[in-house]
Backbone:
């Protein structure tokens, strides 16, 4: 393994990044780093709101908060690490939401309303996203030695709390790959079950095995399942308290 390897594991929603990075970290003994999920950060900075309620400005605020966390956590590790995602991920999701609509799950009626309301400011937000993208691309190129990209292999986890559609997921996946290739960072696409992924990754990068792969995968699945259950319980609580009336949805459509 390259000394002080900085490895980023890439992939869009429901590709198994968290389980894969957790299992890889357990199996190899290389520390794992990550940023909290958007839903976790959202309840800290905008309590009571769901992701689909956010304006473009609020989405940028949340993305910047995640980027800050990710950079802080990566910088705190002196030596090799495995990153669940990378500094380009928050920009990717923001960029695709600019292209496909602030809320990918909104009805056509609400999407049209949002586009009409936002026509004056959308150009500014796009310029901001372009500048944001230039900054995180430069940092990724300076920081990561290699990417492992997890393709879209599984159906999206239908938790009902994320404003994500299949077209959004596929567009994010393609933009991730295009951006990594643009940066010229070595990228290996690795699919299959968790155990198969860990075997392939450790072989490609010549990483040590300090815990048997099957055992590491089982531990990772248990940890991630418990973590996701906590996240979804909190999301259900927020949804139960949220005003989901037609009038409220219209109100959110009339801002950008």
Residues:
């Amino acid at each position: 393994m390259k000394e002080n390897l900085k490895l980023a594991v890439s992939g869009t929603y429901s590709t198994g990044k968290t389980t894969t990075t957790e299992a890889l970290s357990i199996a190899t003994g290389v520390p794992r780093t990550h940023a909290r999920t958007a839903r976790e950060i959202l309840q800290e900075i905008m309590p009571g709101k769901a992701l689909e309620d956010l304006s473009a400005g609020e989405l940028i605020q949340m993305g910047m908060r995640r980027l800050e966390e990710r950079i802080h956590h990566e910088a705190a590790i002196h030596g090799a690490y495995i990153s669940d995602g990378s500094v380009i991920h928050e920009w990717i999701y923001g960029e695709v939401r600019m292209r496909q609509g602030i809320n990918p799950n909104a009805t056509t009626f609400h999407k049209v309303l949002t586009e009409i309301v936002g026509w004056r400011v959308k150009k500014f937000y796009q310029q901001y996203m372009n500048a944001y993208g230039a900054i995180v691309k430069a940092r990724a190129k300076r920081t990561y030695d290699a990417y492992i990209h997890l393709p879209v292999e599984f159906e999206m986890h239908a938790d009902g709390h994320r404003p994500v559609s299949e077209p959004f997921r596929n567009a994010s996946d393609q933009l991730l790959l295009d951006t990594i290739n643009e940066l010229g960072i070595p990228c290996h696409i690795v699919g299959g079950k968790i155990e198969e992924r860990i075997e392939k990754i450790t072989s490609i990068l010549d990483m040590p095995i300090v815990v048997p792969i099957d055992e590491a995968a089982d531990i990772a699945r248990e940890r991630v399942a418990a973590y996701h259950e906590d996240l979804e319980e909190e999301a259900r609580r927020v949804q139960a308290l949220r005003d989901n009336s037609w009038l409220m949805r219209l109100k959110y459509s009339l801002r950008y």
Remarks:
- The mean pLDDT is 86.
- Residues 213-241 form the longest helix (29 residues).
- The radius of gyration is 19 Å.
- The longest strand covers residues 6-10.
